[in-house]
Design goal:
The protein is mainly beta. It is built from 1 helix and 6 strands; from the N terminus they run βββαβββ. The strands form 2 sheets. The chain has a 4-stranded antiparallel beta sheet, with no helix packed on it. A hairpin with a 6-residue loop joins strand 2 and strand 3. The longest helix has 10 residues. The chain is flat, with a radius of gyration of 21 Å.
């Protein structure tokens, strides 16, 4: 389990020094129907003949690399950049911090 803080101090290219940045998890946008590969694929798939391209089935990885989208908090310097983290099965943004020697109280 990887726990990432919602804000972090990191270098801002626009500002030129370290600034607080807001972190969100990057998500891929919807694919365009008019991209070159999609037009080519749809043309090839149309009509008789079934599936024309191989469908990948030998998945090797069980984890994904998490990409963070960092946005500068400074109002005049809203620069955005991406930051890739290591592979993990579960990730959490702004979760509770683990404490060592935590005593259970009743």
């Amino acid at each position: 389990m990887v726990n990432v803080p919602k804000t972090c101090q990191t270098f801002c290219k626009k500002y030129g020094q370290h600034q607080p940045h807001k972190a969100t998890q990057y998500r891929k946008g919807k694919d365009s129907l008019y991209a070159q590969w999609k037009r080519h694929y749809d043309r090839r798939q149309s009509g008789y003949g079934g599936q024309t391209k191989p469908i990948f089935q030998k998945k090797a990885k069980t984890t994904k690399k998490i990409s963070l989208r960092l946005e500068c908090v400074e109002p005049n310097y809203r620069s955005k950049r991406m930051l890739a983290t290591k592979r993990c099965k579960h990730s959490e943004l702004g979760g509770d911090k683990k404490r060592k020697s935590q005593v259970i109280q009743f």
